[in-house]
Amino acid sequence: MATAAPHASVTHTEARFFFIMACLMAATTIGGFALMAAMGISSFSLPAIYHIHAGVFIAWTALYVAQNSLIWRGNTATHRKLGKSAAVLIPVMVVLAITITFMTLRITGGPPFFAQAEFLAVNLFHITAFAVLAGWALKRRRETDWHRRLMFGAMATVGAPGLARLLPLPLTIPYTFYVVFGAALVFPLIGMIADKRMHGEVHRAWWWTILVPVAALLIGEVLGNTAFVQGWVAEWVAGTPGGERPAGPFIPPGF
To answer: Alpha-carbon distance 93 to 127, whole Å?
Structure first.
């Protein structure tokens, strides 16, 4: 018992840390979108698929918080049962994110702080990074140390768009995506610091939670700046409301 107590204490402390961070990431993700709605920037008149997309991503966020709460409270049985729903949500989220990206380019032209081709390319690789981390986490679900850290990285990655809405994006042009991804990576960095304090070393999984989204960002930026992707996007938005805005990033009038 004397040797088991410290380990049990560290395990409980770690579970509490992951739950607190889950709540923090959920708050920044949902808070960002709520802020846009309160400011009248988000529109409820968009096609139904946008609201379905929002509902599914909120469900994922709620699931992530609930799962960490269950582990913190020691209810692993319910955690495992509820975790099966993640295998359904992940592919649905990927399909919705890709669909919304293409639709947004034609409906609004995409957020003004990004070039249109950049918006398409980075978004596609961004959601891929989420799927890689979340899918990998599910595959290693029996290795709890890897599982919880990879899933943490998946949540930090997919929550970036919400966090972005809390940032002064007009001041970040033309490096907006770099700033957004950098802000999201603060969460895994906090995890690294917590690992060092609790265990005396940084778990290898944390490095993947940084490497995967950074790779997605860099690949997306490179492709988004190619003439091929820029030309394809120009054709995709031609004749639509999205084609009326500049192809490059800009600050909208009166913003």
So the answer is: 8
Task: Please give the structure tokens belonging to residue 36.
Answer: 């846009």
- In a domain, residue 71? The reply is yes
Pseudo-torsion of CA 77, 80, 82, 86, nearest 10°? 170
Across the 255 residues of the chain, what is the mean pLDDT of every consecutive 10-residue run?
45 94 97 83 80 96 97 95 95 98 97 97 98 98 96 98 95 97 98 96 98 98 98 98 96 78
Residues of the domain holding 111: 9-36+47-240
Give a three-class secondary structure readout of 26-81: HHHHHHHHHHHHHCCCCCCCCCHHHHHHHHHHHHHHHHHHHHHHHHHCCCHHHHHH
- Whole-number Å distance between alpha carbons of 109 and 247: 8
Instruction: Name the domain count of the chain.
Output: 1
Radius of gyration, alpha carbons of the chain: 19
The answer to whether 205 and 28 have CB atoms below 8 angstroms apart is no
Residue 42 maps to a domain:
no
Task: Report whether 96 contacts 47 (CB < 8 A).
Answer: no
| pLDDT value of residue 1 | 34
